[in-house]
Design brief:
The chain is α/β, with parallel strands linked by helices and 297 residues long. It contains ten helices and eight strands. It is 42% helix and 14% strand. It is globular. The structure holds flavin-adenine dinucleotide (FAD).
């Protein structure tokens, strides 16, 4: 393994996890958390299943991240298919569990990505309203989403950036982006975001590629393009998992390094609840663990 030329440069780091769906996944998650927390992320986040379907596991996972793993933890929270009172009740539970960070989202309707979104009759009409409600509590750090290739439902990139502006104007602290692989596309997007007067940090979401075939299956629905250069990078490695993992770590580390050259210094890593690939990416970037895995924090 070679480190990149940017190795050792300091950068902000956050990880995204999802709540486990089985005992086996639960064990894997906590092992992953132990292995990745040695790289001292600024915060971690835990997703909230479509339409609140993982409310209980999300709350349990967030609570344990805070109390056991002692990580500054953001709970994702969606407002789709829920009344204001229902969303507020979840917020109260999160506060009681010591959560002070929230990733505020509209979310997808229960019928799935692509189904038409209709606000709940007693709910929030858009994410900006949810952000306003959260900030009325006074003690939440609120992140929102951003889509460098536009959200699939957005008319065009300008409509998408208008949505981001409303969320930023409502008081969001930062935007975490959907994953993307073409840094030129991201840079052009960021120029448009800044031209629209949005000044909050837009933190690139980086997806280390665990499996290119699976990624292609869901990327389109998320509004992310999988460029053809990735086919070329992974060609011939289908039956060579070790080499494939090396390529995957190289690709993600090179993407981050290139973004650093373009002036970015904060990154949100989609971990898929697995440590080895993310660890390999961070090692290539020269990120030093602050302690040995398993040593007390
Ligand atoms: P917004 O940014 O509020 O809106 C997205 C776009 O849809 C806007 O640009 C706008 O143009 C358009 N739009 C919004 N409202 C309307 C409307 N009423 N009519 C027409 N167009 C409209 N999903 C989950 O279920 N759980 C999660 O934990 C989760 N975490 C995520 C984390 C990140 C960093 C990202 C990028 C996405 C995440 N998602 C999650 C996915 C997200 O819920 C979906 O992409 C959803 O479709 C949009 O929610 P949003 O908050 O991003 O929408």
């Amino acid at each position: 393994m070679e480190t990149t030329p940017a190795a050792g440069k300091e950068f902000g780091l956050s990880y995204e996890f999802f709540p486990p769906k089985s005992e086996e996944m639960d064990a894997q998650l906590w092992q992953t958390v132990e292995q990745l927390s040695v790289f001292q992320p600024d915060f971690v986040s835990v997703t909230y299943g479509a339409g609140g379907s993982t409310k209980a596991p999300t709350l349990a996972t967030v609570g344990r991240m805070i109390s056991d793993a002692r990580l500054s933890t953001a709970s994702h929270l969606t407002c789709v298919d829920a009344s204001r009172e229902e969303v507020k009740a979840v917020v109260e539970e999160l506060r009681a569990a010591g959560v002070r960070r929230i990733v505020a989202l509209r979310g997808d309707p229960a019928a799935g990505i692509g189904a038409e979104y209709t606000p709940h009759p007693d709910g929030f009409s858009d994410t900006a309203q949810l952000v306003e409600m959260l900030l009325a509590y006074g003690d939440f750090d609120v992140s929102v989403s951003a889509y460098p290739e536009k959200h699939p439902e957005s008319r065009d990139i300008f409509a998408d950036i208008d949505t981001l502006k409303r969320k930023a104007d409502a008081g969001a602290t930062r935007a975490l982006t959907q994953f993307f692989f073409d840094n030129d596309v991201f840079e052009t997007y960021l120029e448009k975001v800044r031209a629209a007067g949005i000044t909050i940090p837009v933190v690139p979401g980086i997806m280390p590629i665990q499996n290119l075939t699976q990624l292609k299956r869901f990327a389109g629905r998320c509004g992310s393009t999988v460029p053809s250069f990735l086919d070329a990078r992974f060609e011939g490695y289908d039956d060579k998992p070790e080499e494939r993992a090396e390529v995957a770590a190289d690709v993600a580390a090179e993407q981050i390094e290139d973004l650093m050259r373009r002036g970015l210094d904060d990154f949100h890593l989609y971990t898929m609840n697995r440590a080895p690939l993310v660890t390999a990416v961070l090692e290539r970037l020269g990120r030093k663990p602050v302690r040995k895995v398993g040593a007390a924090a």
